[in-house]
Amino acid sequence: MYVGGKLREPIMITRIYEDYRRLSTNTAREIMRVVLEKPDAVLCLATGETPLGAYAEFVRQAKMQRIDISGIRFVALDEWVGIPPSNPGSCHYFLHRHLFQPLQVEPRQIHLFDGMATDLQDVCTRMDAHLSELGGIDFLLVGIGVNGHIGFNEPGVSFDRSAHVAELAPETRATAQKYFQGETVLEKGFTLGIRQIMDARTVILMANGARKTDIIQAAIEQPVSESVPASVLQQHPNSLFFLDAVAAAQLQDSSRKA
Ligand code: PGA
Questions:
Q1: Active-site choice (96, 130, 147, 238)
Q2: Which listed residue (78, 114, 138, 199) is catalytic?
Q3: Mutate to test the pocket of ligand 1, among 49, 141, 206 (most ligand atoms within 8 A of CB)
Q4: How far apart are the first and last CA of the chain?
Q5: Is 78 one of the annotated active-site residues of the chain?
Q6: How far is CA 157 from CA 111, 114, 128, 247, in A?
Q7: Could you tell me where the beta strands, DSSP code E, fall in the chain?
Q8: For 6, which of 100, 125, 185, 194 is 20 to 30 Å away at the CA?
Q9: Is the pLDDT of residue 5 over 60?
Q10: Predicted confidence (pLDDT) per residue in 74-124, tens digit
């Protein structure tokens, strides 16, 4: 298949773990592996409830082993438009709280979307340019929305897009209220595009729990379709689906246990 100008064979691996703890530990191990193998790696780590356990474990291991991450670069996957970095529901706040502060990551290592910018297109253009300068993403960890979105690539998105502003789907607006302290109006989000996700050297999609069971089946076992954006990862040259047993419960091929 044709990805980012190169012809590469898709390889998709599914690993199913018994529970959230094992899922998280194994995901943290993959992050650790990248950081150790490539001390100047470009990481794109999603926000959300799903990766919280993996980040806690990664931070614990990195501190315990005194891993030098001063050369690692971090780029955002997405951000809510109009939500300031001081808001605990923002992706900015999440990343600082769960990764950057505990790991003492310096501002020079971080490039996020500015949720409060007035020129939205400029934010996207600068993200595209920054990613090109970095040479793309080495390792991307992403969750999946109940509607199949990855980042804010909502159902119907073109797979050709790079960083852009998305109209948030109704499911996304509703589900996302859990991140905020009070009812919050969410209309748009910045997101890396599918093109940039597909250009990442390694992608891990992580999912757990019953809310994700049906959409995981669709993303992995139904034909690739823009109506389930995560399904595009079936065509990625190096993608891994890390699941707990509950999220994997509807998969037909049960030979995938880790
Ligand atoms: P969650 O979000 O990890 O909070 O379930 C996933 C997503 O919507 O991408």
A1: 147
A2: 78
A3: 49
A4: 27
A5: yes
A6: 24, 22, 18, 24
A7: 2-3, 6-7, 12-17, 42-45, 73-75, 78-80, 110-111, 139-142, 164-167, 188-191, 202-207, 239-244
A8: 125
A9: no
A10: 999 999 999 999 999 999 999 999 999 999 999 999 999 999 999 999 999
Ligand 1 atom index nearest CA of 46: 9
Nearest to 167 by CA among 81, 51, 49: 81
Which of the four pLDDT bands, split at 50, 70 and 90, describes residue 255?
low
Dump pLDDT digits (tens) for 157-173: 999 999 999 999 999 99
Indicate whether residue 145 lines ligand 1 (CB < 6 A): yes
Residues in contact with 48: Cβ distance below 8 Å, sequence separation at least 6, in sequence order: 143, 179
Q: Which two tokens stand for residue 117?
A: 């910018």
Domains of the chain by residue range: 12-244
Beta strand spans in 39-126 (E): 42-45, 73-75, 78-80, 110-111
Question: Out of 57, 154, 199, 244, which one is annotated catalytic?
Answer: 154
